[in-house]
Specification:
Layout lengths: L1 H29 L6 H17 L4 H27 L5 H22 L4 E2 L8 E4 L2 E4 H23 L1 H11 L1 H6 L4 H27 L1 E2 L3 H16 L4 H21 L5 H15 L15
Antiparallel strand pairs: 1-4, 2-3
Length: 290
């Protein structure tokens, strides 16, 4: 049934929303494509699973995963971004990719390469509306994702910290001249991005009841696609992009088969870039006046 597939696509897209917003924070504010984000997604799911397996309460396990992701993000900021932010753009990008490889291989050595069964922490309760079935974990994922995006949007536009962050996004040198402590705010941006990403990994594990050292790679690429589809630097564009990718993935499985998923998703990205290169909510680059 098409309506059920649309619901499933929106719910899946909620996870892509969190990852897409994380990439948007990095590229829109810092002009830094942070390739450690898929690794942080994996950390969210894997650390929670390890802690639960060790007998921790689910709240403490999730808290440990979020704390670990935030700590790793601070290391990425200090060792990858801060040391090379004045060099060529490719340098911090490649060093953040090194963090991704390191995180994946640490998980690989620790737990092995097999997918691990994640325990069901949410009661198996489905909401039925006619013939439509919506799982509790799906609803939680959508509500959490949209609530966090609303909070982020309000924070960026209504608070002093948000105004400082937007000032850095516009021009870092001018922000420094205005007295903004850039070296204090940038680590906070990394932490925000890490928390969004790790929470996405936890929600993914809750929905699909499995984790693995490489669970972040496919989701990470689709998060980048969501950011590009929505428009580079647009938080709500990343939301729309994530939901569209979720819909494209589910509908392609329904009508074309599982083997066509990536063709459908990245074909959508390519088609949009041809028609609207700046993305749905992005602004076209200003032309230089002669």
């Amino acid at each position: 049934m098409i309506a059920q597939q649309l619901i499933n696509g929106v719910m899946l897209g909620a996870i892509y929303v969190l990852v897409g917003v994380s990439f948007t924070l990095a590229i829109g504010i810092l002009n830094f494509l942070n390739f450690s984000i898929p690794g942080l997604f994996m950390v969210g799911g894997m650390v929670t699973w390890v802690m639960l397996k060790g007998g921790w309460h689910w709240s403490l396990a999730k808290g440990a995963a979020l704390f670990g992701a935030a700590l790793i993000a601070l290391l990425v900021e200090r060792l990858s971004y801060r040391r090379s932010r004045n060099s060529d753009p490719e340098v911090p990008l490649v060093s953040s990719l090194g963090f991704l490889v390191l995180l994946e291989n640490l998980a690989l050595v620790t737990v092995g390469s097999d997918q691990q069964a994640f325990p069901s922490l949410i009661a198996d309760f489905n909401i039925r509306i006619g013939d439509l079935v919506i799982g509790t974990a799906q609803i939680i994922s959508l509500v959490v994702a949209l609530s966090l995006v609303v909070w982020l949007s309000v924070m960026l536009h209504k608070t002093n910290l948000g105004r400082q962050i937007r000032s850095i996004a516009e021009n870092r040198d001018t922000s420094i001249l205005l007295g903004i402590d850039v070296d204090r705010i940038i680590p906070q941006i990394f932490v925000f991005s890490a928390l969004f990403t790790a929470l996405g990994g936890i929600l993914f594990a809750l929905n699909y009841l499995q984790v693995s050292p490489f669970m972040g790679e496919g989701v990470g690429f689709k998060g980048i696609a969501a950011m590009i589809i929505g428009g580079m630097g647009s938080v709500w564009g990343a939301v729309l992009g994530g939901l569209l990718i979720g819909l494209a993935e589910v509908l392609s499985i329904r009508f074309l088969g599982a083997d066509m998923v990536n063709i459908a998703v990245y074909g959508l990205l390519l088609a949009l870039l041809i028609v609207r290169p700046q993305g749905l909510f992005g602004r076209p680059p200003a032309r230089e006046k002669l």
